[in-house]
Amino acid sequence: MSPTFASLSIYNYRVYFSGALVSNIGTWMGRVAQDWLVLTELTDHDSTALGIVTALQFAPVVLLAPWAGALADRFRKRRILLGTQTALAVTSAILAAVTLTGVVQLWHVYLLALLQGVATAADNPTRQAFVSEMVPQDRISNAVGLNSASFNAARLIGPGFAGLLIAWIGTGWTLVFNTVSFVSVLFALRMMRGNELEKPPLAKGRGGLREGFAYVRHRPDIMLIMAIVFMLGTFGMNFQITMALMATTVFGKGAGEFGLLGSIMAIGSLSAALMSARRSRPRLRTLLIALAAFVVASAVAALAPSYVLFAIFLVPVGLSAMTVLPTANSMVQLSVAPHMRGRVMALYMAIFMGGTPLGAPLIGWIGSEYGARWTILVGSIATGLTAVGATIYLMRRDDIRFRYEWDRGPHLNVLRLRDRSQALTPEQVR
């Protein structure tokens, strides 16, 4: 089997991957349908309302993340996922029902977004840490990359399909597709072979939350990665707001063209995810170069003079963003102790997704006050400052060295020193 798909040779991961792919497609359809419902059916293109919905979905990730991580480390992860996926299916079904019956109001969307956020707060760290139970240590990076590929393959299919369905049979029935898609991941979890899952020791007793915070506080390498993904997630990756505003207010397009933008961006995102799956180990230099590329690509997209050019520029935006995220995720997972993985990944997801309650309303307000293009440019500026700050920090550390090499073409090596006199080879760089 190709190194890109190595983890699919493992039965449990193969079953999980298949179910998650169907569910991810439904999730993207649900997101597009929800955004279209808010923007065009419940408000008159009110970007602030859309920002509030997004914030409510992600706020619980911040508030509940420490407890969710402790939960993931104290109980079997497959059992937790069965509960969280069921809760997400129920909330999706309620939103579809009130939409189809014509009684939906904006407060319904707000409330259901908050409830989905609560379920997601428990689901995300558990799902991230569950990877290490399905595959051996040497395939974690590959499995993380394939998970990202699944997510972005769904983004390639889901938004465009959702746009067509909204135009054909309406928003409510598109939400029904999302509800039904949760059955696939629930079925996959039931079909897994429990005796083939790795079973790390479960955390016991109190103090789990404090241990998680203390562990991260004494790991500056993890804190740096979390700072990078926080800024990228908070200001740079509000795509469900920025693409909706660009499509409707700048280019005057409808549901089909709006959904198509997500699918086009997913071409770059899926390519990046598959390339990440091929890498045996994540690299710090990959993270920094991809972050800089995102700054340039998003700024160019924001200034695009036409819908077609904007859509084209979304490909490198997706490529660079989805190079940063799997690389950062793998670096954290591979460097953390197994019994702390749930709590650390909960904090990681809280930092990444939890910035959205701060960024989404701000981005929505910027769109209302200054126009849709500035919703993207603000993210470019913030992410650019983050890239510069991270580089300066690393250059000032005694155990890091930057070196430019030209013998096989220009490229950057980021060398981590074991001590002040011994540098690792490029093959050992993390």
From TrEMBL:
Residues 4-401 form the Major facilitator superfamily (MFS) profile domain. CDD domains: MFS_MefA_like. Signal peptide: none annotated. PROSITE patterns: MFS. Gene3D superfamilies: MFS general substrate transporter like domains (1.20.1250.20). Keywords: Cell membrane, Membrane, Transmembrane, Transmembrane helix, Transport. It is a multi-pass membrane protein. SUPFAM superfamilies: MFS general substrate transporter. Its main location: membrane. Coiled coil: none annotated. It comes from the Bacteria. PANTHER family: INTEGRAL MEMBRANE EFFLUX PROTEIN-RELATED, STAPHYLOFERRIN A TRANSPORTER. This is MFS transporter. It comes from Luteipulveratus flavus.
